[in-house]
Design goal:
Elements (H helix, E strand, L loop, with lengths): L2 E2 L2 H18 L5 E7 L3 H17 L2 E7 L5 H13 L5 E4 L9 H7 L11 H8 L8 H12 L8 E5 L6 H10 L3 E5 L6 H5 L4 E4 L16 E5 L3 E2 L5 E2 L4 H4 L3 E4 L7 H17 L3
Helix pairs in contact: 1-10, 2-10, 6-7, 6-10
Bound molecules: NADPH dihydro-nicotinamide-adenine-dinucleotide phosphate.
NADPH dihydro-nicotinamide-adenine-dinucleotide phosphate binds next to helix 10.
Length: 278
């Protein structure tokens, strides 16, 4: 029987470990969470992040800015928070409104407080194997694999997707863990044929149920990053779970697989940020 990788249980275990570490080491940390506008999905994400901070015993400060906030004002706030010794981590909930340049915002956050791991310096550090903040979703996938006992070293890994927040850092992390890595994208030829070589297949393609058994090698580990709301209101991933399940040795469900890991790893980064010499 394939293992269903329980992201909910693993994320809770990580948060409980952090809670203990924060208490035992008397760690003082405060996460600044900035939201521009009132997109309902962003409000839910921000609320969940603040709840996770409270759970592990660190502080959070909210900055809820109106939709019409200028780029200059947002940069000014980030600059103030960069200089504020009480603030250990800064997170700007994405996406920001169209009149604000996301790249400028990401680059304005001090790399020492970059708990999302999106700053060019964080990405560069990951690329050359230096300690730094790692994008939370891919970091969470490494934890899922390790804590499920999936060996990564020497394995053939195929990542579908090359976005800056998932696909690319995912590929770099698998490489750092000594997998042999192939990255696929929308121009890849014979996607199914390449995916079928994978011992570990990671789908971050953003297309509901696109990855069917035709893409999966018998006994592969399948990680589904995608999250989509179907017409019937239920959630599904990029993988056609029912079709793929019996061909895998382990698979993440949606919901309850990769999703919960993102916030757990954000908390890991917040605790790391508190210890980082500013
Ligand atoms: P993006 O849309 O930024 O990237 C999608 C990638 O898939 C691109 O590299 C694109 O290629 C590639 N792609 C698109 N269509 C195809 C195709 N037909 N064949 C092969 N490759 C294709 O998405 P993200 O990386 O941000 O997110 C991916 C998924 O993960 C989404 O469903 C998102 O909702 C989910 N997600 C989940 C998170 C979680 O916490 N669980 C966190 C972040 C994302 P190209 O570069 O050529 O355009």
């Amino acid at each position: 029987m394939p293992t269903i990788i329980d992201g909910k249980a693993i994320s809770t275990a990580i948060k409980d470990e952090l809670k203990k570490e924060v208490a035992d080491r008397n760690i003082k940390a405060t996460l600044a969470v900035i939201q521009v506008g009132n997109d309902p999905a962003s409000t839910v994400y921000v609320g969940n992040k603040k709840k996770a901070c409270a759970y592990i015993g660190i502080g959070s400060k909210s900055y809820e800015l109106p939709e019409e906030t200028t780029e200059e004002d947002l940069l000014g706030l980030i600059d103030d928070l960069n200089k504020d010794d009480e603030i250990s981590g800064i997170l700007v909930q994405l996406p920001v409104p169209k009149h604000i340049n996301e790249k400028k915002i990401t680059a304005a956050i001090s790399p020492l407080k970059d708990v999302d791991g999106f700053h060019p310096e964080s990405v560069g550090r990951l690329c050359i194997g230096q300690e730094g903040f790692v994008s939370c979703t891919p970091a969470g996938i490494i934890e899922l694999l390790k804590r499920t006992g999936v060996e990564i070293e020497g394995k053939e890994c195929v990542v579908i997707g090359r976005s800056n927040i998932v696909g690319k850092p995912m590929a770099l992390l698998m490489l750092a863990n000594n997998a042999t890595v192939t990255v696929c994208h929308s121009r890849t030829k014979d996607l199914a044929g390449i995916c079928k070589r994978a011992d570990i297949l990671i789908a971050a393609v953003g297309k509901p149920k696109m990855i069917t058994s035709e893409y999966v090698k018998e006994g592969a580990v399948v990680i589904d990053v995608g999250i989509h709301r179907m017409e019937n209101g239920k959630l599904c991933g990029d993988v056609d779970y029912d079709d793929v399940y019996e061909h895998t040795s382990a698979i993440t469900p949606v919901p309850g697989g990769v999703g919960p890991m993102t916030i757990a790893m954000l908390m890991v980064n917040c605790v790391k940020a508190a210890a980082w010499e500013k």
